[in-house]
Design goal:
heterodimer, A: mainly beta, 11 strands, B: 7-stranded mixed beta sheet, globular
Chain lengths: 111, 114
């Protein structure tokens, strides 16, 4: 059962514009959410996270928004840069600290 | 600060053979996780350790799979009698419990079963 869903397999955005990645979840027990970035032939790299007690967390060009009532979170990247081209995974955890991942969204930043 | 390392990076084996992968976590991390990733999917949880104790195994982990973390440092994942369906990327991650939810991943071992 897929508890974390990323319904957009790919996203193409022009350099300098905003990238918005979406993630939905079904398990109301999730209390912590994370985004990971993955380049080919490398493991996922932690990007940014948010606790369920918050609705926004910002780190430089990256902002994550959480809407608990809708069981939805999003990652905003602004401005998008060519080095942002990668696969982005949404992940969620309950208090056991195990991660459940979505299937990923491939972001391509066009020059 | 060395990250998580995994060995080998690639493994090609014939169906029915046994394989073993190794993971070296970040040195001060007490939790170590194994995940499996197939094409077009996100990582799926297999099992995890806190120090040397294996705390949980996913139902994805058949009896052919076994994992150890004998001294609470490195870990090994063994697959016996490999099947073609075992072909995947096997990822290891570590974290410092209970300080944070963030897990730090190694580069993975890509297994191809022919």
């Amino acid at each position: 059962d897929q508890q974390v869903k990323q319904n957009s397999p790919s996203l193409s955005v022009q350099e300098g514009r905003i990238s918005i990645l979406n993630c939905d979840y079904t398990n109301s027990m999730f209390d912590y959410f994370l985004w990971y970035k993955k380049y080919p032939a490398e493991g996922p790299t932690f990007l940014i996270s948010i606790s369920s007690i918050k609705d926004k967390n910002e780190d430089g060009r990256f902002t994550v928004f959480l809407n608990k009532s809708a069981k939805h979170l999003s990652l905003h990247i602004v401005p998008s840069q060519p080095g942002d081209s990668a696969v982005y995974f949404c992940a969620a955890s309950t208090n056991d600290y195990k991660l459940s991942f979505g299937a990923g969204t491939t972001v391509t930043v066009r020059a | 600060d060395t990250g998580v390392s995994q060995d080998p990076r690639h493994k090609i084996t014939k169906r029915g053979q046994n394989v073993t992968f190794r993971c070296d976590p970040i040195s001060e991390h007490n939790r170590l996780y194994w995940y499996r990733q197939t094409l077009g999917q996100g990582p799926e949880f297999l099992t995890y350790f806190q120090n040397e104790a294996q705390l949980e195994k996913s139902r994805l982990l058949s009896d052919r799979f076994s994992a150890e973390r004998p001294k609470g440092s490195f870990s090994t994942l063994e697959i016996q009698r490999t099947e073609q369906g075992d072909s995947a990327m096997y990822l290891c991650a570590s974290s410092l419990f209970p300080r944070g939810y963030e897990q730090y991943f190694g580069p993975g071992t890509r297994l191809t079963v022919t």
